[in-house]
Endoplasmic reticulum oxidoreductin 1 (Nyssa sinensis), 535 residues
Amino acid sequence: MEPRINKSHGSRWVWAAGALFAILLAIALTSRNAPVISLPSLSNKHGHCDLDSTKYSGIVEDCCCDYQTVDHLNEDVLHPILQELVKTPFFRYFKREEERREEKREKSPSRARHRHSPPSQSAVVEVPERRETVKREALAVARLRPSPSSLFPLGSPSLLKSPTQVKLWCDCPFWPDDGMCRLRDCSVCECPENEFPEPFKRSFSHGLSPDDLVCQEGKPHAAVDRTIDKAFKGWLEIDNPWTNDDETNNDEMTYVNLQLNPERYTGYTGPSARRIWDAIYTENCPSYPSGECCPEKRILYKLISGLHSSISIHIAADYLLDEAKNLWGQNLTLLYDRVLRYPDRVRNLYFNFLLVLRAVTKAADYLEQAEYETGNSEEDLKTQSLMRRLLYNSKLQAACPVPFDEAKLWKGQSEPELKQELQRQFRNISALMDCVGCEKCRLWGKLQVLGLGTALKILFSVDGDESHESLRQTLQLQRNEVIALMNLLNRLSESVKFVHEMGPSVETIMEGQISATTNQISPWQRMWASLVGQS
Ligand SMILES: Cc1cc2nc3c(=O)[nH]c(=O)nc-3n(C[C@H](O)[C@H](O)[C@H](O)COP(=O)(O)OP(=O)(O)OC[C@H]3O[C@@H](n4cnc5c(N)ncnc54)[C@H](O)[C@@H]3O)c2cc1C
């Protein structure tokens, strides 16, 4: 059944909400010096207009759908379904490697080729008999040691660890983790035992000692059940060639309830965060000034830029306005400064959304037949039904049947090389996610990069024969990839909705305010400013 739109709001309420919104927005935006801006969320879908039609009109670049259609489909169909879907038990638990474990199993040689030297050999320590003591001492050293500021060249030879070596703090192949995270909100809340899906709980109580269940540092800690994927029937243990993590490695895995760990402001900022973005953009996905390069090569840049926009939008949508009072709200100055004032970043968000949506609909038959069993039959039926509503949605099929046409973009003689090049760059980006110095940011960074890798895997998985049957036979996805894919789509859908709803008003006021400030400056001040600017 299609989601119904509540049309019961009277027009009076619409106008009242609109007027109140405009007043609050004007007040909030008047002070550019104010560090943050918070507004009540505008939930009335009739109280906003479309994004500036001159900036965002026509077909989304390299896609097959226009901005207006994307907004309407997202609002009426995709966003409501996705919001429900990500709350289901199947989609809310994400498997990730345990944080700060001291020993890591060696990846396969093919993986190791894509890993790079850690910044210093001293960050890798032999494991002696008394591993615990040495680990503590070594961690203390790692904390004190200043992190090298230079980026290690991504092409440097890889340092293969023997299984008896220890890697400190994290798996970052480029720099040691520098603990730049400031807030408790950076850390991830793992799942308490009573939240796991039933099949997981069964093997949990049989296989693990009660010590694994104790809470550490006041946070609920979940023990790892390595049989979980076997409990979720029908899912394969296969590796994703687009990502750096070895997804077949089931050791040392914990489960995180994504609903308890929303992507939002964490306080992670400064050189550590900047270094990651710089490394991604400069080393792995150059932006190529428009017109200089072919569209295929710009894909990766557009995807990452779109993801970056989405992360910034989530930070702006859920920001810590007052740390002392633990007051959270929207920071619309940040939304404008980081995203809206650069129309390309908004366009890249829409591009990313459509590419991921295309991957999901391309794999519709595969995803429809997958097992969504978690032991809670009522919830599992709901998950299946939501998936079907999304995958075979008549409104979506009528308005935007092929959101992105991958065949048009990367067919041709260079296709295999392009795929390999993209894969190599994408794996580097995936490896960089291990260097994100904030646990919650790393969780969402890794999840979303895995989601993008899964989308690319689907889009590149069929050569020539585009039939659903062929895709079903060729494609192999694992459970975590599907969870990442659908959660990524939901994040992008949230971002598109937020920008669509808030963008026009924020832009109007911010741009009006900027021009008013410019006009207030006297000719002397302007002359002085230009002299200072030139010095
Ligand atoms: C993987 C990852 C996940 C993160 N998750 C979170 C999180 O959940 N919560 C949180 O509070 N912080 C998170 N951060 C930090 C956050 O993204 C910013 O780095 C931080 O808030 C500092 O912002 P900034 O103003 O310095 O600009 P940044 O966002 O760090 O941007 C750095 C530079 O990149 C360029 N740039 C910015 N946006 C785009 C774009 N859309 N397209 C192209 N270029 C762009 C600009 O030149 C900009 O100066 C994350 C960082 C990373 C690397």
